[in-house]
């Protein structure tokens, strides 16, 4: 269907000296790269590196927004900078299609998925409504949506996260584009679903010969999926080359730092002295929690028992919906268990106990934007009845310094801090109550890997100094291995496997744990290819 | 669906009963001699006494309210001195002023009010939503600034200014239309429409301003959503993006506002009714309040309340039709 006259010797994507300015901010600065037909390139970088901006620029999505785009962009034979609006519309979706990060918000909630794909198809191909609808079913079937004809009539909210992402990929495939641009396509997904989507992208590429430009913050995802990587930082290219070379023997310091910060699921944690782990501080028995009533009743946590000792870290790992957050909240006392009890230091807890504190996932929304961070940190102090302003200020300053911020930050507001700094504020607030246990619910999942490593290090340091017991709830298997002494794997509200971290990771007993570990992306592209082949064999059986 | 309807009907009944209690209490504690006002300024003390007896003004509040409820459920007989008038259920009582049955009074006024508000609603939705969509689409350009200015002026102008201006220009200067005069739809639909055209326009112009502003804000919000970006990135034209994807998402608050404004306009378009001499509910209500005609006030307020409740239930149904994620409860 593509009516483009392919100029021989011309690459699929050619970007020369690309600059993108948002007002005074230069998001992309002098970027040059090319992508050959059928090849795959990953733009890898942390947040703010400009990688997504490049993806948008390739389709001319900045046009009409006041953003200034300089340099040359040539995509599938279209000069994006000079093209007319009509030419751009033909390019978008027709020859180059984009898959976005959040598949729920990226689809229109009001229309059936099949209708949305058909609409896009009809923009680019002269087809009747009926033919377009048939095409939609065909591509939905192609991306592995079971019973595609029926499911094409569903609205996006009736699909699971993985199926929505498949649907978006189906939309991209509808017009048989030469280039697929995938902007963080698996970031919102569970690790097992991520593996499926990455495998799907790989298969589609093999079959259709389309080129892939993958934008990701996850080096592992890049290693699994592409031939070449381009590492970006502050809008500039840091390093570019074949994936095995760049990840195997990085030439630049930043690339080495980035790779060093990536938590490895296969690296055993440093063994620590046994005496740091002390008596039992928290004991949960038979915890159960239900939500809803009658037909809609749903058991989020089912018969979970665990103990936590002084000075140790218990990692709770699981995919979305496994009940790990609900469990964490019950341990802190933010949620009443439907059955079972939490005992703290041997006695049943009656209310929220200041000795058990929580650090939340999203450091943006868990701090009140209208109050200074000092005031937020002082809350637990005031809650305990401290009235002396001088003493409160003194203690908060101390805490700020303790978590690696400055005492002078007391009067600043949350928006003045970076994500990592905000999470430090969250930790300081948890420390203010002199807790013995801190439950961290996905404390680093919103952070870049380098920041993530710093926050993890801070938590370890605090634990050693204060003898804290930590409960580390996360979906990221590698991070959990990095921080935990013991690990509990959750699935559908139950703990399927529990034990010392290295044992669980190196010698998993439960099939679900094995499946999870097999899905984690690895940094070595050769191993990634082997594992993909293994997964494919498993699926074929 | 059945559950939704049952809950809505029950809720409406409770709401309306609560409203009637409040009106009764308010009028009970209102100062002033109701019998004197009802009887007129030239009545002798004896006559006033007699009126008070007829109207049961001496009875305690709960007894009078009980009477009202009985009439509503079972109907009631009223003696008007010489004859006995039977008022069948649902009986809202007799007007203190005219001895007319309130239900009959309402049935006479309601078509006028509904004619006015329905027509105006169609106009204000077309004008308001249209303007809102246009100014969201042309954001930051001259079109938008012009439209914003006009709608702001619309919000700020009282209805009698617009109405008077329309009448002076259209009926007086240009003589395109005769001065409006209510003609029942059942008598002559064409004359009905022509005569209501100016009242519709003046009521709609005022209301449209609020809809334009709301639609614009709501559209801008939807246009910033991710799925809009998706369709732009797939080469879908701007007209389709705006009309198909953005507008549908932006309509929910518009539906809600419309439900409220429709309901309250049924009894609240007093100025428009007065200006164009339309004998509607609003005018009658204002008059009844002035002369402390309790049964009429209660009746009118209940009718208005009924329309507000129904309009909101319809809005909820529309939500559920527009957005399948909404569960009716």
From TrEMBL, chain A:
Sections of the chain in a coiled coil = none
| GO molecular function terms listed in the Swiss-Prot or TrEMBL record | ATP binding
Specify the superkingdom: Bacteria
SMART domains attached to this UniProt entry? AAA
Q: Which UniProt keywords apply?
A: ATP-binding, Nucleotide-binding, Transport
Q: Does the record's keyword annotation contain Transit peptide?
A: no
Among Pfam families, the record links this protein to:
ABC_tran (PF00005), oligo_HPY (PF08352)
Q: Which InterPro entries match?
A: AAA+_ATPase, ABC_transp_ATP-bind, ABC_transporter-like_ATP-bd, ABC_transporter-like_CS, Oligopep_ABC_C, P-loop_NTPase
Q: Cite the ABC transporter domain residue spans from the record.
A: 13-259, 282-517
The similarity comment for this entry is: Belongs to the ABC transporter superfamily.
Know the name of this protein? ABC transporter ATP-binding protein
Species of provenance: Streptomyces lanatus
UniProtKB/TrEMBL annotation, chain B:
Which keywords describe this protein according to UniProt? Cell membrane, Membrane, Transmembrane, Transmembrane helix, Transport
Check the record and name the Pfam families matching this protein.
Answer: BPD_transp_1 (PF00528), BPD_transp_1_N (PF19300)
On the tree of life, the source organism's domain of life is Bacteria
Q: Per the record's keyword annotation, is Transmembrane included, yes or no?
A: yes
Cross-referenced CDD domains: TM_PBP2 (cd06261)
Its placement in the membrane is given as:
Multi-pass membrane protein
Subcellular location(s): the record lists: Cell membrane
Q: Where are the transmembrane segments?
A: 9-29, 112-134, 146-172, 192-212, 296-322
* All residue ranges annotated as the ABC transmembrane type-1 domain in the record: 110-319
Transmembrane helix in keyword set = yes
Q: Which family does it belong to?
A: Belongs to the binding-protein-dependent transport system permease family.
Put simply, this protein is called: ABC transporter permease
* Organism of origin: Streptomyces lanatus
